[in-house]
Amino acid sequence: MIIETQSWGKLEVNKEQLYHFSKGIPGFDDETDFALIALADTPFWYLQSVKSDGLAFLLGDPFTFYPSYEFELPDDEAEELAIGSEVIVRCILTLKEQTEHSTINLLAPIVLNPVTQTGKQIVLHRAPYHTKHSLLQEQPLTDGKDGG
Hints:
Acts as an anti-CsrA protein, binds CsrA and prevents it from repressing translation of its target genes, one of which is flagellin. Binds to flagellin and participates in the assembly of the flagellum. It contains two helices and eleven strands; from the N terminus they run ββββββααβββββ. By secondary structure, the chain is mostly beta strands. It is globular and about 40 Å long.
C-alpha cells in the first residue's frame, strides 16, 4: 500500500505495518488507521496516519529510556485489544530544539497488538508517571503530582 506522508512523500508500507485504533488517538478521534514505521537501527518509530499526510507521531521504546518502566494493563483494555502473549508498547516523544529538553510520555503509552493489528493509547490512572519525562536520562519516578 502506498501512503502519502509530509516527511517522506509517498511511502510504501506492508499490511503488517498497519494498525487500527477503533477510537482514534485522544485529540485525533477521526484518525483510526496508522502505519507503524521503524527507523532502522534506532529505538524510534513513526506512527503515521494513513488518512492525513501531516499527522505522524514520533514514538520511542520506553524500556530503552526507562528500563524500570512498568505498568499493569487494565483487564478491560487488554480485552478490548485482545492482548494475548504478544504486545508492543511505545510512547510518544516530544523533541525540542535543545535535545536535553526532549521528553517521553510515560503516562499514556501506545499499546499495540501485532496479531490483530489493533492499537490504543492507554492513560494510566494509577501510575507514578507523567507526560514529560526527560528523554536523555532516567529520572526518579514521582507520584505524578509535580504538574508535569
